[in-house]
């Protein structure tokens, strides 16, 4: 039994010790849900402490070929573990594999799954399949833009702004009227849900500069494919000034430029963040890249799925605020929320704790 003095001390300590602040995520909520052109409203999002039930989620990715989707996977695994829910991941193997992802999505109709999280390989190629499964359970769009038919919520950022952010790196260095520079542009896989928006934003911003796009190379975001594209471009146009495009392209470009002795003359910009891009910026091999905090988007998609199942979903469309990482900002921004730890390996199936 506590003495009166001990009780008084305990009471004092309870009053004097600060209560730990509740975790919040700084996000941008779209004022018009599912409209990436609408303004973003800054919000401090308070995530759930725990799910009411050990829900099981069916998660679809375009692929796990690069570190970007690995980081999305890390965020999902972390948040699912915290909330006490389970998930199974099915990856399509690349953006050309629309038929495979449709088949995987149809498999999510199984009774064992309560909701679907969809990282789509195509903007509108999955629409009929999404509409069908949405009659049975919630469908959350994750990262890649997609036609809104049947979608319950979206955890994403405007990919047009990602392209524009990369373009602003060039327009700031080469404003209109300055000496012209030549850009080789590697948008990503033609037809993927995010590529057309990245293209639109990048080209609009480049129009405000002295840069000219002299070559465009579309291709899947696997590293091997990007190596071939960069090698082919440099064989044909060794006098370009910039290589700009996807994370795997930037990773490939660093090695290829070093091998060819072109690192000092040709500069590299990525349209999104990956582990290799982050290292490249730190080492001065890559100029810059916008980050959309892929790991945090993974966490948010789990949150949205659980809230949709529990009737507490109020934020229908949100994502992190995009920030540009370069030599001057990399220390302040860091890797948290963007990248999985270096030791992380993909989680394809995770049971509820």
Structure report:
This protein has 353 residues and is α/β, with parallel strands linked by helices. The chain is built from 11 helices and 15 strands. The strands form 3 sheets. The chain has a 9-stranded mixed sheet, with helices on both faces. Strands 9-8-10-11 form a 4-stranded parallel sheet, sandwiched between helices. Strand 3, helix 2 and strand 4 form a beta-alpha-beta unit. It is globular and about 60 Å long. It starts with a helix and ends with a strand. The relative contact order is 0.17. The model is unreliable at 1-20 (pLDDT under 50).
Fold topology:
Elements: H1 4-16, E1 25-30, E2 40-45, E3 56-61, H2 67-83, E4 86-91, H3 98-107, E5 115-118, H4 127-134, E6 139-142, E7 153-155, H5 159-173, E8 181-186, H6 195-206, E9 211-216, H7 223-236, E10 242-245, H8 247-260, E11 267-270, H9 275-282, E12 288-291, H10 294-310, E13 317-320, E14 323-326, H11 330-333, E15 349-350
Parallel strand pairs: 3-4, 3-5, 5-6, 6-7, 7-13, 8-9, 8-10, 10-11
Antiparallel strand pairs: 1-2, 1-13, 4-15, 12-14
Helix pairs in contact: 2-10, 5-6, 7-8
Total strands: 15
Query: For the largest beta sheet, what order do the strands appear in spatially?
Result: 2-1-13-7-6-5-3-4-15
What oligomeric state do the depicted chains represent?
single chain
Structural class designation: alpha/beta
Rg over C-alpha atoms, rounded to the nearest angstrom: 22 Å
* Weakly predicted, low-confidence segments: 1-20
Largest sheet: 9 strands, mixed
- The fraction of residues assigned to DSSP E strands is 15-25%
Number of helices: 11
Element pattern in H and E: HEEEHEHEHEEHEHEHEHEHEHEEHE
Shape: globular
Q: What is the arithmetic mean of pLDDT?
A: 93
Distance between the termini: 36 Å
Work out the helicity level: 25-40%
């Amino acid at each position: 039994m506590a003495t009166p003095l001990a009780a008084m001390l305990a009471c004092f300590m309870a009053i004097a010790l600060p209560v730990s602040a509740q975790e919040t995520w700084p996000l941008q909520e779209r004022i018009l849900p599912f409209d990436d052109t609408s303004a973003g409203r800054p919000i401090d999002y308070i995530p759930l402490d725990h799910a009411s039930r050990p829900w099981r989620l069916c998660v679809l990715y375009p692929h796990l070929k690069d570190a970007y989707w690995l980081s999305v996977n890390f965020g999902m695994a972390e948040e699912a573990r915290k909330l006490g829910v389970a998930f199974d991941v099915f990856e399509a193997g690349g953006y050309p594999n629309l038929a495979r992802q449709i088949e995987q999505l149809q498999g999510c109709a199984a009774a064992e799954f309560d909701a679907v999280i969809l990282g789509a390989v195509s903007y509108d190629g999955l629409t009929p399949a999404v509409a069908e499964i949405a009659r049975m359970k919630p469908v959350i769009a994750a990262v890649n833009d997609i036609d809104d038919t049947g979608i319950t919520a979206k955890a994403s950022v405007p990919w047009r702004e990602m392209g524009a952010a990369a373009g602003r790196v060039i327009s700031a260095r080469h404003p209109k009227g300055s000496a012209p520079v030549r850009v080789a542009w590697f948008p990503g896989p033609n037809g993927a849900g995010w590529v057309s928006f990245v293209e639109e934003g990048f080209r609009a911003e480049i129009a405000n500069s002295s840069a000219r796009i002299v070559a465009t190379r579309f291709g899947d975001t696997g590293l091997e494919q990007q190596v071939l594209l960069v090698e082919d471009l440099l064989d044909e146009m060794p006098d370009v000034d910039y290589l700009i495009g996807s994370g795997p392209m930037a990773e490939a470009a660093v090695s290829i430029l070093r091998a060819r002795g072109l690192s000092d003359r040709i500069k590299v910009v990525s349209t999104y963040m990956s582990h290799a891009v982050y290292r490249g910026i730190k080492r001065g091999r890559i100029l810059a890249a916008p980050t959309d905090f892929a790991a945090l988007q993974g966490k948010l998609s789990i949150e949205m799925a659980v809230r949709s199942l529990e009737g507490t979903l109020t934020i229908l469309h949100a994502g992190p605020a995009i920030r540009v990482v370069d030599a001057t900002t990399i220390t302040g921004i860091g890797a948290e929320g963007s990248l999985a730890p270096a030791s992380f390996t993909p989680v394809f199936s995770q049971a509820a704790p």
